[in-house]
Amino acid sequence: MQLDDALRQISDIRHQMARSEVFRGYRSVTVGLSGGLGLLAAAVQPRWVASPASELGRYLGLWVGVAALSAIMAGAEMSWRARGAGPGLARERTLLAVEQFLPCVVVGTLLTLCIYRGAPQVAWMLPGLWSLVFGLGVFASYRLLPPQVFWVGSYYVLCGCGCLLWGQGDNAFSPWQMGVSFGGGQILGAAILYWTLERTDVSQSHD
User: Fold this and answer.
1) Is pTM, for the whole model, over 0.90?
2) All structural domains of the chain with their residue ranges
3) Is the pLDDT at 85 greater than 80, yes or no?
4) Which of 99, 174, 165 is nearest to 129 (CA)?
């Protein structure tokens, strides 16, 4: 029993240490690439999906594909960095980051499926809802990241509200709702990650 208690206490200490250190698994290049992918998809959408309201499956295929590819890129880099760091706090911080952000991905997926199958008439709300859910995911991960990431979460929430307020009628399914919210949010996140973490690392390596 004493050994079990000691191991549990060590695990709790490691968990607290992982929570107290800044997570460096998100990199500016990968995050920036996902933002560029969002802008590219916004530019392609008018040709790929001429009438999103009547081609909802195609519209969702485009943007869900962008989200999936972005998640794959981010996951691959985090996994590679965690393996390179070996067993220890780096891997535990990676798992903690995934645990904190994963619920927003699951909720966003279920929300999309429910609207697509049960209420396609309100599908114009999806860009705003996606942005709000993603913003909540950023806020959930906020304690692991530089404080300036707060502005990324705020950006997504504001964009989500803007899409819901002005993204109906003639503006429904406008490609730049997603281009500005997701593309712009990811590029803002990439800039903050570089400025607060990677720029410091580069300058220290030159000293």
Assistant:
1) no
2) 26-196
3) no
4) 165
